[in-house]
Specification:
alpha+beta, two-stranded antiparallel ribbon, 21 helices, about 55% helix, single chain, about 425 residues, 7-stranded mixed β-sheet, 11 strands
Length: about 425
């Protein structure tokens, strides 16, 4: 599918007489033999118009980023193609977004973060497959080194500090000595604190989405610390152990329940990282980084857990309906965090039973069945459903017939609005 897509883009480029090249991360991972299904293509021409032709040809969606002359073509099966207008960049002020002008391929390669991301492959008909490496990226790949393209790289864009760490740890590379010196100097100048919070948030999320995020987090601890998140945040031994436990529980969940709603793993790790902070600091972080409401709610839900909740969930003899009552309102992420943090064997079993048995339990009966029994619709319907569900969870009723019989008893005993 990727090959067919590249050929299609090549044909469109040829018909419109536009030079086009594969570039960046896709080329890097192609050389490394790492799976990467996101195509990055640079064109010497109008990238947005070119992307519009591709999306029209494929009848798929398109997202335009006019300020930078780029567009993203959204394909099925989680594939996407980023189309970039070859451009030059000028940073009017350190740590701010650049001013851009049109350029040629070499200009676009020069503005990249690291040499390993500044390689290209022609997909033009006349030289299809020609490899272009102006800055020694292939040699740095061979040497397993992360190298910036110029001395002001981390000053122009300090988020490259986090990116250097992320790529270094992902591929088990090393930041080469000169680049490491430049990184340390940018950190000494507190350049990360001059970047917009939203850009920092996005880079942090990418780190936490890595397969083994604890590795780059440890490197951040070593090279920059976590002041760019909160001055009181550190990666203590206790926090590291918690994050390792989170990693283990995420693996357990993915292995056991591959068809369930996917975890927001980055958010789970993030909550683990900031667990040491008090609620006021956490609220400040959420506001600073402009987290979505759903993300804030899950963070708050975890921080609101109290010792009484954990004590009751840790009891050996507790009804299934009680386990359900405790855990059903919580997100998967919060439940995984509880499982990772508290090692009580009864609590562990209750959570495992919740995922395996109770979560998703539903009743056979509906509002229509209650109406047929002569119960006038009203708020008490939910009370009835709640009682029947608890009985089902506790194994007291199993079939629809038994559910209906229980409803009859409830309505007789409690006078639930009979006609």
């Amino acid at each position: 599918e990727i090959k067919d897509l590249i050929r299609l883009v090549s044909d469109i480029a040829n018909k419109n007489n536009i030079p086009a090249y594969l570039i960046g991360g896709f080329v890097r991972d192609l050389i490394l033999g790492v799976k990467n299904f996101d195509l990055d293509i640079v064109v010497e021409g109008d990238g947005i118009k070119f992307a519009e032709v591709i999306s029209g040809k494929l009848n798929v969606g398109l997202i335009r980023h006019r300020r930078f002359g780029t567009a993203t073509v959204i394909l099925k099966k989680h594939l996407k193609v980023d189309i970039v207008t070859a451009r030059q960049e000028y940073y009017p002020e350190a740590a701010h977004l650049p001013e851009v002008t049109c350029g040629v391929l070499k200009d676009d390669l020069l503005r990249r973060d690291f040499t390993i991301n500044a390689m290209a492959i022609s997909i033009n008909r006349q030289d299809f497959g020609r490899f272009i490496d102006c800055f020694g990226g292939s040699q740095d790949l061979a040497n397993k080194e992360i190298r910036v393209l110029h001395n002001l790289s981390f000053i122009d864009d300090p988020t490259r500090i986090l990116r250097a760490i992320r790529f270094e740890q992902r591929y088990n590379f090393k930041i080469e000595p000169k680049t490491l010196k430049l990184l340390r100097e940018a950190n000494r100048l507190k350049m990360l604190e001059r970047v917009s919070r939203e850009r920092l948030r996005d880079e942090l999320i990418l780190i936490l989405k890595e397969e083994r995020p604890l590795k780059p987090l440890n490197r951040i601890k070593e090279l920059t610390r976590f002041d760019f998140i909160n001055s009181g945040l550190s990666l203590s031994k206790k926090t590291s152990q918690f994050l390792k436990s989170i990693e283990s529980q995420i693996s357990w969940f993915k292995r056991k329940y591959p068809k369930r709603r996917q975890l927001d793993t980055w958010l789970t790790y993030f909550i683990g990282l900031i667990d040491q902070l008090n609620i006021n600091n956490i609220k400040l972080i959420c506001k600073k980084f402009s987290f979505r409401r759903g993300e804030e709610k899950r963070i708050a839900a975890y921080k609101k857990l109290n010792p009484k909740f954990i004590k009751e969930l840790s009891q050996d003899k507790i009804k299934a309906s009680e386990v359900f009552r405790f855990l059903e309102p919580l997100s998967y992420e919060v439940i995984i965090l509880i499982k990772a943090k508290f090692k009580n064997s009864s609590l562990q079993k209750h959570i495992e039973d919740f995922f395996e048995i109770y979560n998703g339990t539903h009743l056979y009966i509906s509002g229509a069945d209650l109406h047929k029994l002569g119960l006038t619709p009203g708020p008490y319907y939910q009370k009835i459903f709640h009682r029947v569900l608890n009985a089902k969870l506790d194994g007291l009723v199993k079939t629809k017939k038994e559910e209906l019989e229980l409803i009859k008893k409830i309505s007789e005993d409690k006078s639930y609005g009979a006609k």
